Amino acid sequence: MSGWTEEGIARAWRALARQEAAEDWRFVHLTGMGAVSVEAGCHFPLGREALIVSFPGSWPVNPARLPEGKGFDVSCIEGQTVFAGKTAIALVRRPEGSPDIFAIMVVDVLRTLETAANSASRDVMEAFLERVREWQAFMARTHRPLSADAQIGLLGELWMLRLLTDTSLGAGALDCWQGPLRAAQDFHVRGGAIEVKSTVRTGSFLARINSIEQLDGDRAPNFLCAFRFEENTDGISLVGLVTELRERFGLAGVQRGFEALLMVMGYLDEHAALYGRTLTLKDARAFRVEGDMPRLTRAALPAAIRSAAYVLDLDALEVPSIGLSELINEFGLD
Is the preceding omega at residue 45 within 30 degrees of 0, hence cis? Predict the structure, then answer.
């Protein structure tokens, strides 16, 4: 399932878009995860795209337990023979909902389902509903301009994205950008990961680590990359970097996916006039997350500690760092 993409899901929906007779639904099977079945669907008469996850057993689901709709509806499907003896929960795009954002959400939900299905400690339905609630919270969020720190954070992630597109990955680097999809790290490159921290502040480079998993996971190699920017009239603005990447991904035919990820990050063109500060990269270092690298790890923490965030002084680290070209080589890219 990890091979599914937004375009793959969109193709499935396009194949379902033509209503036959007076049917309310059309379905196509996507995958099975143990006893859980996943279908793409199209709901008529409006031809709205849907993802249907069906769980074994038939029982009444309290509607109050289902997340409330923002951009998409969540409901149980009844009366369809394909789901006989099952409890089928559908995510259905609302007419006003962005198709691109909905496709990205569906792929993210599918990956969450796969992870939960492979974990003996997680209830798949609870994991599914929890992820849907997180997306509902995003959809309901008021889209104010990005804060100064959020602008620098996004600039750093886009800087890394551009760096990766300059490698043999090309436009495929867009699939590596997992930060907008709530992954533990910003980028998943092949089997490894890169977490990007950025600052324009002078003095100590204080990086906020947002979770235990951010610097503690199964992906390898795993790097923490530190970008220090400074203001410079000859530099590039956040708007300029977005424009450059739009052109690259547009030529590759994947600009819609890039635009959707930007929206998830809170970048809207209506606020572009506020993002004109020009910056250059003053320093870049990457630290391998292993061995003596200071960090919280799940194995070293008491089981009662379920989550944690902390601040790491990157200038105080007494572990070796490497440059960006070496970082790229660590992933076997050229």
Answer: yes
- H or E element: which one contains 135? helix 124-139
One domain for residues 153 and 283:
yes
8 Å CB contact between 199 and 152: yes
Residue carrying the six token digits 């289902």: 66
What's the one-letter identity of residue 281? Answer: L
Closest CA to 293 of 259, 266, 270, 320: 320
For residue 69, what is the domain's CATH number? 3.30.200
Q: CA–CA separation, 161 vs 165, rounded Å?
A: 6
For residues 258 and 243, the answer to whether their CB atoms sit within 8 Å is no
Give the type of residue at 77. I
CA 299 to CA 218: how far, in whole Å?
Answer: 12
* Residue 169 belongs to a domain: yes
Name the DSSP class of 294. Answer: -
Domain that holds residue 225: 148-330
Model confidence band, residue 67 (pLDDT cutoffs 50, 70, 90): low
**Residue 205 DSSP code:** -
**176-188 residue pLDDT tens:** 999 988 889 999 9
**Lowest-confidence segment of 183-192, 218-227, 251-260, 271-280 by average pLDDT:** 251-260
**Mean pLDDT over each residue of the chain, to the nearest integer:** 90
Considering the domain architecture, whether residues 118 and 190 belong to the same structural domain is answered as no
Helices 255-264 and 99-117 pack at an angle, to 10 degrees, of: 80
Say what the pLDDT of residue 1 is: 41
99 and 21 within one domain = yes
- Could you give the percent of the chain with pLDDT greater than 90? 59
* Per-residue model confidence (pLDDT) at position 182: 82
DSSP state string for 60-124: PPPGGGSPPPSSEEEEEE-S-GGGTTEEEEEEEE-TTS-HHHHHHHHHHHHHHHHHHHT-TTS-H
Given pLDDT bands bounded at 50, 70 and 90, which one contains residue 79?
Answer: confident
